[in-house]
Amino acid sequence: VLKAAAFFSSLSGASIPSGLEILPPIIIITVSAAVICCLLTDDVFSTSAVLAASVFISICAVHIFSIYPSDTEITVLTEGNGCIVLVKNNSCTQLYDFMGSSRGAEKAMRNIRRSGAENAGLIMLSRKCEYMRSVYEELFPSFTITDPVSKSGLTYSEEDTIIKFGNTRIYPCNGYTVIETDGAEIIVVNKKCTVPDKQYDLCIYNTPSDVTVDALAYISADEDFHGSIPAGIPCTVCVSADYTVSGGKIAPKEEIAWLR
C-alpha cells in the first residue's frame, strides 16, 4: 500500500490545487458539462440545473480550504552566524536550515518538540549538507531530509526551480532562497547577490554583505551584517523571533521587542 501510494503521489497530476488555482479546470468542466447536457437532453431546465450544480461545486472547491484555520507560525532561530526558519502549520513542521551547525539543529529540535509535531515534516539543508544530514537523521529519524539539489519526497516544477511541500513553496536561487507559505513571502539572503525587484513580507539577512531588499520587516541572522535597512522599518538583529501568518499577511508576535 505504501509503495502504491508513493508511486501515485509522485505523478504530476496527483496534487490537487486549492483556491484560485483550481478555477481554470473548473470553468472548463462546467462549460463542457453544460454543452453535453444541452446536446443530450435539449432541455433548458436540465441544462440550468447542471450549470447551477456546477457553480455550487465550484464555489465549494475554491473556498473549502478557508473553512479550516490556516494560521501559520514562523519562527526564526539564530545562533551565531546563521539562522534556521521553522514553519508550523497545524501538526506539520517544516525546517529550513541556513546555519549548518549541530548546535542550531539541537535548538530547532527543542523548539519543534515543544510544538508536538516531531513526527511529521521536512528539513531542507542549505549549508554543510552531507554533515548536517547525519545530524538531523539522528535527531529526527522520521523527517524527510533534503537539499536544493535533491528530489526525494518532494514535488518539483518542470524547470526544477520550485520545491512544493504541503502549503509551502521553496524557490532556491543563486545567493538567496524564497519561502512562500499561506501567501506570505520570506526571502533569506545567503550571500552577495541581486534579488528580484519586489516587496517581501520578511527579509532574513544570513550574510554580512549589504544586499538591498524591499521588505516589510527585516532580521539579521548574521552578527557581522553591515548592510543598511530603510529607516523606520521594523528590524531585529541576532535574536530569535516569532511570526504568525493569517490571510497571506505576516505579523510579529506582540512580545517581540523591535530594535530600530
Count of beta strands: 17
Order of helices and strands: HHHEEEHEHEEEEEEEEEEEEE
- Radius of gyration, taken over Cα atoms and rounded to an integer in Å: 22 Å
* Annotation field: number of helices: 5
> What portion of residues belong to β-strands?
25-35%
The computed structural class is alpha/beta
What distance separates the N and C termini? 54 Å
Shape: elongated
Specify the biggest β-sheet.
Answer: 8 strands, mixed
- The share of residues in helices is 25-40%
Give the uncertain stretches in residue-range form. 255-260
Question: What can you tell me about this protein's structure?
Answer:
With 260 residues, the protein is of the alpha/beta class. Helix content is 27%, strand content 29%. The chain has an eight-stranded mixed beta sheet with strand order 6-7-8-9-10-12-14-15, with no helix packed on it. The protein has a seven-stranded mixed beta sheet with strand order 5-4-3-2-1-16-17, covered by helices on one side. α2 runs antiparallel to α3. The protein is elongated and about 75 Å long. The C terminus is likely disordered.
